[in-house]
Amino acid sequence: MNISPTFLVLVCLRFLLAVLPLPGRNLLKHDHQLSSPLTSYLHLNEGLWLLDNNIDPYMGGTFHHSPLLLSLFSTIVPPLPIVWAVSDGIGAWALLCMWRARQGLSSQKGTKSNVENLIVSVYLLNPYLLLPSLALSTSTFENTFTLLALMFASQGKVSSALLAIAFAVHLTPSSILLLLPILMVLLSSPVSNLASPRPFNGSLKHIPFLFGEFTLYWLVLVGAACIITGGNWNWVRASWGASLTLPDLTPNPGLWWYFFTEMFDHFRPFFLMVFSVHLVIYILPVCIKFQHDPLYAAFLLVGVLGTFKAYLTLADPGLFLSMISIFPEVHGYFRHPIITILLHLHAALLLPLQHVLWVSEGRGNANFYYAASLVMGMAGGAGLVDACWAGMRIAVGDAKVWAEEKLDGEKGKVVWWEVVQQ
Question: For residue 400, is pLDDT > 60?
């Protein structure tokens, strides 16, 4: 694959940030906006220490990482910042390959270098992605596996795509939302068809076989996790169950934590079910509406996760914002991009400010920080709605304005829409 010099420079810069003793790195590790109880480096380090001392990390109810990460960082590589830098580089490369597959470009061609430089820069320089990576949040690995799954699906590599999404689902069960659009990409094409919507042209009879292969990979990962823990199944409740039962209500930029902080225990199970099902109900409507472009459907579902995920960090909306760069055909159809940008700017300013006032200085309360979380939720929702609008609006075409001479001699304007689909 032809790699641009800009890509190499940015990757080298990212490696440099990983090896330099940056001031404030420890503060980033304690920041609740950059890592959650499920992705925190501090919790991961605690689990590694417990494992080294022959103590089950999942007994205390505070460790929520996958046993695969425990095995990786205890036997293969230590949890050094360079590992996160490598993951960022792989994620940027996957996003670039995805764009090339969508444009129908050969992996050996070096065309449209300016666009490719923009795509790489938007990913590697995105503060929503860079800061969690510098904080050593394992959400970086989740994003990388998600991008690898979408990249392999765009390239038609069935086994690789299913294995990558199996890893992503194992690390964070909410990634199951992306399984159906990935299967649809494998059965059709990643090339943009937003301007010419038509019924899904893939063979639906192959979906059970693909799902069976995904299930096989997922079960192998589950078996490996059980072997690592010595046949103990406590990790299932501690790792996967945390996303459903919300045992740790540490503040984060998401919408769940404050709601369940104020929730009476009697109503908690019902609303946990409601919030969890709320994520799932988006899958079929989005995939049906955008069946002509399943890669765009996957992008929208990434946006759903980046807005409504249980333990949200900045890395989740960051992935959605970075993926916008590979869909240039819809950029001209966004309805309110300025409002979305301003909402993100407000959230980026309010979240650290309210976090310091409440957690560090003790001069505020939970309402202050949750107000900033609501701004972040509005920013994610505005971007998601605008992306849905642009994906449907492009099929209508552009407005054509013509001057028409009226009977009394005055000129008027007649506006109609040129439909572009075939």
Answer: no
